[in-house]
Design a protein that fits this description.
About 75% of the residues lie in helices and about 0% in strands. It is mostly helical.
């Protein structure tokens, strides 16, 4: 087993284990911490695949920004020691059926896809300058406007979630 294969196995195991812990944890702060481990391992997987730009975005934006935002909103709106109630059997069975169906669909799709091997010559590779210009451009194929719209949408969602969570039931 090569080092890359070993690292892939470790990252895959971390992602699977902490993903399961994220959705099964009854303490919300622990679930957010487990989500952080999943996002960091996903960034490690991107580094392993040599997608350095995606890995940096994954670590800074998701692991660094979104998880910190989630943890701050948890600390502002709820009690840290609170435990969520255990799900009933009526919810567990459909959840397992949906998860099994989704896993079967993903596995079937991956197994049936041919995954052709394409060699890209150095003249066909996208230059980092082209990517950077597309990220900051506001023109036809630019990404600046969608990023700003998404940031406003996330801000509005967080403010709304905090207002709903802080609302008293008097």
């Amino acid at each position: 087993m090569t080092t890359n294969q070993l690292m892939f196995a470790i990252f895959a195991a971390v992602i699977i284990i902490f993903s399961i812990l994220t959705v099964t944890s009854r303490r919300i702060l622990r679930a957010a911490t487990f989500l952080l481990f999943v996002l960091v391992a996903t960034g490690g997987m991107y580094f392993l695949l040599r997608f350095n730009f995606l890995a940096a975005i994954q670590l800074t934006l998701y692991a660094g920004g979104i998880v910190v935002l989630i943890i701050f909103s948890i600390l502002l709106t709820s009690h840290i020691g609170e435990k969520l109630e255990a799900p009933s059997v009526k919810k567990i069975i459909p959840a397992f059926i949906a998860a099994g169906f989704g896993a079967a669909l993903c596995i079937l799709t991956i197994v049936q896809h041919p995954f052709p091997q394409e060699v890209i010559s150095s003249s066909e590779r996208t230059d980092i300058r082209v990517i950077a210009k597309a990220l900051i451009s506001t023109e036809k194929f630019g990404y600046a406007l969608p990023f700003e719209v998404i940031s406003i949408l996330l801000l509005a969602a967080m403010v709304g979630a905090i207002i709903l969570a802080k609302k008293r039931k008097d």
